[in-house]
Amino acid sequence: MSKVKTSFFCQNCGAQYARWQGQCNSCKEWNTIVEEIIQKSEKQSWKPETTTTTKASKPLKINEIDSAQEIRMDSFDGELNRVLGGGIVPGSLILLGGEPGIGKSTLLLQISLKLPYKTLYVSGEESQKQIKMRAERITPNGDNCYILTETKTQNIFKQIQEIEPDVVIIDSIQTLHTDYIEASPGSISQIRECTAELIKFAKETNVPVILIGHITKDGTIAGPKILEHMVDTVLQFEGDRNHVYRILRSLKNRFGSTAELGIYEMLGSGLREVSNPSEILISHKEEALSGTAIASTLEGMRPLMIEIQALVSTAVYGTPQRSTTGYNAKRLNMILAVLEKRAGFRLGTKDVFLNVTGGISVDDPAIDLAVVAAILSSNEDIPIGEGFCFAGEVGLSGEIRPVNRVDQRIQEAEKLGFTTIFVSKYNKIALKNTFIKIRLVSKIEDVASELFG
Ligand SMILES: [Zn+2]
């Protein structure tokens, strides 16, 4: 019996140490380093004791490399395809992170049932019966989908050799363990080794692997940042459990942009792809209410019309409250200061609440102008004209700055039946003959006087 070998790992960033210490040198977190048993076996392969004839790769001249090689597999899910940049790249490792209970398993199970390829769905979390029950709620077919309840990687690879799937899904990486390491499942060294085995498998066979990873309270993929470095693509599934909408975002993508966004609606029968999100993000009401304004924003290449709601009221308590959902709180404070200093609105003693509908958080600075309009509308208690929308960034001196791809924003607004859009005077607009009226503004005072006279 060989001596048990241990090592120390930071549970936050995965850094390895020879002995325990209070603070991690690499991520500077305190008390995150714990001892884990590692006992590496000599031979280490995803193939269980068979010949290991790995093809060593050969250098090629750059002109010999086939540039059209990135063939993608259609995932038969428009939103997932969009976020991945056109589909699943064979041999890639995709990590899908998200809080427990947000719907990661539902999403991947639903996709595996739809795929026309042979798919192996490995679950360490639920029994085959439980998964079958869930699958029946989603769709009655699923002829190509195999379900395996297993947590040991060596057993999983044995099944893979028999079934020869085209896609492998692992639910979740935190439940896996490999024989080559003695630490408990979910520990840094187990997660790292199991992922390494799966990467080796994916690269050697060209079969894509999708991993589910649970996220801790502070929003990082549980345990390891290291996982994010190892895989090709990191997707995050987010949303509020109280809202029906879920957002699929890519945080890292070796094969495409990270700017794209997928939107789903959670239904009793599974997740519905929302292909025209603007329609759901704008609430439809009978009468015009003060305090709401529509922003024409862009998420990746896709334009989105988003409703901003503001409530401005006299502060009941000494210090006025400011609270936002889906919009940067510092940015709100800046906008309020600009409104007070540059346009003379006395908001210093008012409570201001701001909400982006649908539970989405928006980074696009073009939303500023709609925020200003919503705040002023609530403050004046005058509804904004019907069919109005906004796209502009607000600067510190109260100027309305131009936004990128303004033509696309205007077109989307027009497509959805808006009649007037407010944009910066400094934007160069190439569009001709639009039905929608384009109002050019340069300062927030202009906006205020145009809207409320
Ligand atoms: Zn660390």
TrEMBL record:
RadA KNRFG motif, short sequence motif: residues: 252-256
Binding sites annotated in the UniProt record for ATP: G98, E99, P100, G101, I102, G103, K104, S105
Family label: Belongs to the RecA family. RadA subfamily.
Entry's Gene Ontology molecular function annotations: ATP binding; ATP-dependent DNA damage sensor activity; damaged DNA binding; hydrolase activity; zinc ion binding
Gene Ontology terms describing biological process: recombinational repair
InterPro entries, sorted: AAA+_ATPase (IPR003593), DNA_repair_RadA (IPR004504), P-loop_NTPase (IPR027417), RecA_ATP-bd (IPR020588), Ribosomal_Su5_D2-typ_SF (IPR020568), Ribsml_uS5_D2-typ_fold_subgr (IPR014721), Rubredoxin_2 (IPR041166)
Gene of this entry: radA
The RecA family profile domain, residue ranges: 69-215
Function field: Plays a role in repairing double-strand DNA breaks, probably involving stabilizing or processing branched DNA or blocked replication forks.
One Pfam family from the record: ChlI
Gene3D superfamilies: 3.30.230.10, P-loop containing nucleotide triphosphate hydrolases
Source species, domain of life: Bacteria
Notes concerning its domains: The middle region has homology to RecA with ATPase motifs including the RadA KNRFG motif, while the C-terminus is homologous to Lon protease.
Protein name: DNA repair protein RadA
ATP-binding in keyword set: yes
Keywords: ATP-binding, DNA damage, DNA repair, DNA-binding, Hydrolase, Metal-binding, Nucleotide-binding, Stress response, Zinc, Zinc-finger
